């Protein structure tokens, strides 16, 4: 990123927002997470996704429109599954990748839209998303 | 949904949350909902489970989670209002005002029976 100072500024701003104490406080109070997300999916609802999708170690989840990693990174952490996170925003995926690295998770963050997924064939055990099919 | 189906292994499952117009709305109601700004949502004249069926899923289940959605909308609104200075600093005054306005509209749309949030489940055959 050093060669692209404009991008550095965008990423710094994204990291500033998702790590802001007020943002994290609100997120914990409203949905129970600390991913810098302003989602409507609560932690209890994310746990319900894990149950419905039968997520477990050895299974691969695709989370479409994962933003800064909620709920895909959380599901990878809580169930041990592998997760591919996608979002149209490079900033969101940079934040999600950094969080996954910090948590030591088996996840990959890819910039992509839900209608043009960059995968060949039927490769996922489970697919989820939160409020992205507009 | 078709893109989702194509990347799932046979027998694999999708489960997700979606904000959509309520089933059985009249054209007038759908127009009323469309004219409100609010957060983005799926606008469809046919029920969401039919959309899933058309996309090739089976064993489809729709669970209405609107009451929790309203609690979450109110929660975000109340948190933003309680720390307005901090959120204006993060997002700017215009975006802050838009965030509050959209949540108010969605709360009103759910109260009017126009907007719903569902958990959707389906299996790829």
Please tell me about this protein's structure.
- The complex is a heterodimer of chains A (134) and B (125).
- By secondary structure, chain A is α/β, with parallel strands linked by helices.
- Chain A has a single domain, classed as Vaccinia Virus protein VP39 (Rossmann fold, 3-Layer(aba) Sandwich), CATH 3.40.50.
- Chain A has helices at residues 5-18, 21-30, 43-52, 72-79, 90-103, and strands at residues 60-64, 82-87, 107-111, 124-129.
- A four-stranded parallel β-sheet of chain A has the order 3-2-1-4, with helices on one face.
- The N and C termini of chain A lie far apart (32 Å).
- In chain B, helix 4 (66-82) runs antiparallel to helix 6 and helix 5 (84-91) crosses helix 6 (93-111).
- Chain B has helices at 2-7, 27-35, 48-54, 66-82, 84-91, 93-111, and strands at residues 8-21, 58-64, 115-123.
- In chain B, strands 1-3-2 form a three-stranded antiparallel β-sheet, with helices on both faces.
- The model of chain B has no long low-confidence stretch (mean pLDDT 92).
- Chain B is an alpha+beta fold and 125 residues long.
- In chain B, 53% of the residues lie in helices and 24% in strands.
- Chain B has one domain: Rossmann fold.
- Chain B has six helices and three strands.
- The two termini of chain B are 14 Å apart.
- The interface between A and B is large, with 41 and 38 residues.
- Strand 4 of chain A pairs parallel with strand 1 of chain B.
């Amino acid at each position: 990123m050093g060669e692209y100072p404009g991008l550095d500024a965008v990423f710094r701003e994204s990291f500033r927002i998702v790590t802001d104490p007020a943002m994290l406080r609100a997120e914990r109070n409203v949905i129970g997470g600390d991913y810098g997300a302003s989602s409507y999916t609560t932690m209890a609802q994310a746990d319900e996704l894990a149950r419905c999708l039968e997520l477990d170690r050895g299974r691969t989840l695709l989370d479409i429109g994962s933003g800064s990693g909620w709920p895909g990174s959380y599901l990878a952490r809580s169930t041990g599954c592998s997760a591919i996170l996608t979002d149209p925003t490079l900033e969101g995926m940079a934040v999600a990748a950094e969080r996954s690295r910090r948590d030591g998770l088996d996840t990959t963050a890819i910039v992509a839209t839900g209608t043009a997924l960059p995968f060949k064939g039927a490769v996922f055990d489970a697919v989820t998303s939160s409020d992205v099919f507009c | 949904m078709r893109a989702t189906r194509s990347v799932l292994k046979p027998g694999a499952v999708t489960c997700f949350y979606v904000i959509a117009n309520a089933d059985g709305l009249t054209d007038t109601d759908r127009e009323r909902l469309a004219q409100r700004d609010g957060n983005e949502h799926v606008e469809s004249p046919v029920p969401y489970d039919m959309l899933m069926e058309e996309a090739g899923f089976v064993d489809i289940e729709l669970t209405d989670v609107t009451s929790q959605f309203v609690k979450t909308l109110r929660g975000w609104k109340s948190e933003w209002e309680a720390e307005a200075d901090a959120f204006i600093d993060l997002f700017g005054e215009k975006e802050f005002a838009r965030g509050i306005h959209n949540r108010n509209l969605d709360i009103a749309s759910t109260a009017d029976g126009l907007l719903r949030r569902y958990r959707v489940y389906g299996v790829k055959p």
